[in-house]
């Protein structure tokens, strides 16, 4: 039979994208937060992302409609932020049962529009079709100077690992209200100090492994430096945080923290370092003992949990 | 309650898009086959479209997977064709139940890839998420010289109305195999003779009304000149034909037909003319009698039929 739940989301995506065609203007294809394409004849690259939010998977059917719209666009803007891109165009496909309330749908759109306005994104189209449950599929583009996109690859041993905010317990409500780190992403790109970056959607442990894999490095996190809303386990595995996870060389950390404080008036969370032990993700406890971190995370098709 | 099925797809889209923000680079927003945006710093515009295909709405669950993938991308390419654009980038969101067969999903992707290759489109990303039924959401971009996009608006009284192929009965199978009229769309744009163009997805009668509305004109079709696969009713109302419907000034019809024959070796179907009677769509019978055409068409949320 070979059902999806036996191989999981990531292996399925790997198989589907393994033999996709290349193109001279395609800088980065599937496997990063966004695809990156050269904008021929300009000094810019254009980045592309698409994100689904599905009833009873990414939100509950009785969640406030404005917040559902907010989350749908927020996920896409967070992907743009993870590249350091400025948001540009947005299209939204809506799927809904024929009994779906139109006023509710208008409120969903208000949530999308308010967030788009805040970050200079413009909703330019989409489609509306009938289906068994309510879904939004958001497509978004962004731009940045040629060659400046921050990728998951590029981290090198010795880099400090940062995150832009506390992790865990997002499903208690924040996953519907988070503010995508668009301004922070652009700021970090402009510093030119960041080696690698991504946003945290699947959980710190899983996402850091993705970054490690693309960068061909390992990492060690200091348990008591991981900023968290709940337990350590929740910070590591809950996901849907939509904070930025990034790596900068040790030599730039003081400058970075000072510049960040000056710009945003808040702290940054430095919580570990990149190592040369490929695929090894370790936790360092307060007493200095180091242990390998187990693999465990949310993945579409493999977990019964709400996501 | 105010459910979607009471107002239908088109009125719902109108409401949702009524208060969307504008942008100086946005040339055409929601309401045409694609949105059109200026590509600043280049002599090009970029066009954007997104199309869902949903199990038991746009295809049956036991349809061949390659054909499902083909249709999903074909719909998006047909929208690009309707503007006269060259295909560029494609992203695909897949929704599937966790028991969905991975080999089947790979075949869906083969269908997408084969069609993308044929028309120079490149699949650069997407997402995969769990949901109750199988769906594909295809997002595609295209490019064309600045200001050259063929819109639904622009038809003027006296224009001849053409279609690129026979209509009706598509749901008997062709809706899964149609070849999007990409080459034809580019050719028609390059002639500079076309006043207005769109593709036929909702059925000739409904789509021609859309074009009439955007152009603020009326139209009369000659019954016995409408190319069809089945009955006149089927040609008018079935939909999912994905042929191009377009208008050219009477003075260019001979040149156009000769150029078309030279380029494609096939005929074009001239089937009526644009009038100044706004919103009036009429049928002229073989005996010369003219009657107003009833409004009746597939629309998402308003019909029980398969689409």
Describe the 3D structure:
- Helix content of chain A is 29%, strand content 26%.
- The first copy, chain A, has 307 residues and is of the alpha+beta class.
- In chain A, strand 2 and strand 3 (44-54) form a beta hairpin.
- In chain A, helix 2 (65-83) packs parallel to helix 4.
- The first copy, chain A, starts with a helix and ends in a 15-residue tail after the last strand.
- In chain A, 53% of the residues are buried.
- Chains A and B meet through helix 1, strand 3, strand 4, helix 3 and strand 5 of A and helix 1, strand 3, strand 4, helix 3 and strand 5 of B.
Radius of gyration of chain A: 19 Å
Mean pLDDT of chain A: 94
Number of helices of chain A: 7
Strand arrangement within the widest β-sheet of chain A reads 8-10-7-11-9-12-13
Largest sheet entry of chain A: 7 strands, mixed
- Described by its quaternary structure, the protein is homodimer
Q: Quick one: how many beta strands of chain A?
A: 13
Chain pair sharing the greatest interface: A-B, 76 and 77 residues
Task: Give me the secondary-structure category of chain A.
Answer: alpha+beta
Distance between the termini of chain A: 25 Å
Order of helices and strands of chain A: HEEEHEHEEEHEHEHEHEEE
Beta-strand percentage range of chain A: 25-35%
């Amino acid at each position: 039979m070979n059902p999806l739940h036996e191989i999981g989301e990531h292996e399925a995506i790997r198989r589907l994208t393994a033999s996709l065609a290349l193109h001279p203007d395609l800088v980065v294809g599937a496997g990063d937060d966004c695809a990156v394409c050269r904008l021929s004849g300009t000094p810019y690259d254009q980045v592309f992302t698409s994100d689904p939010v599905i009833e009873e998977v990414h939100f509950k059917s009785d969640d406030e409609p404005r917040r559902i719209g907010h989350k749908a666009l927020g996920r896409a803007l967070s992907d743009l932020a993870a590249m350091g891109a400025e948001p540009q165009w947005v299209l939204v496909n809506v799927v809904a049962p024929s009994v779906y309330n139109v006023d509710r749908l208008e409120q969903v759109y208000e949530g999308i529009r308010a967030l788009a306005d805040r970050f200079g994104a413009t909703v330019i189209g989409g489609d509306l079709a009938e289906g068994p449950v309510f879904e939004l599929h958001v497509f978004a583009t962004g731009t940045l100077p040629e060659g400046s996109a921050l990728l998951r690859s590029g981290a090198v041993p010795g880099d400090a690992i940062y995150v832009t905010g506390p992790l865990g317990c997002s499903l208690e409500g924040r996953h519907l209200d988070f503010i995508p780190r668009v301004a922070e992403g652009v700021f970090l790109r402009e510093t030119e100090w960041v080696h690698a970056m991504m946003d945290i959607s699947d959980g710190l442990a899983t996402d850091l492994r993705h970054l490690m894999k693309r960068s061909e490095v390992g990492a060690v996190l200091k348990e008591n430096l991981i900023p968290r809303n709940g337990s350590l386990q929740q910070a590591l595995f809950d996901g849907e945080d939509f904070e930025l996870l990034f790596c900068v060389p040790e030599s730039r950390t003081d400058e970075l923290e000072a510049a960040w404080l000056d710009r945003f008036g808040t702290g940054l969370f430095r919580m570990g370092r990149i190592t040369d032990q490929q695929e090894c993700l370790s936790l360092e406890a307060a007493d200095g003992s180091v242990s390998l971190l187990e693999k465990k995370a949310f993945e579409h098709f493999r977990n019964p949990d709400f996501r």
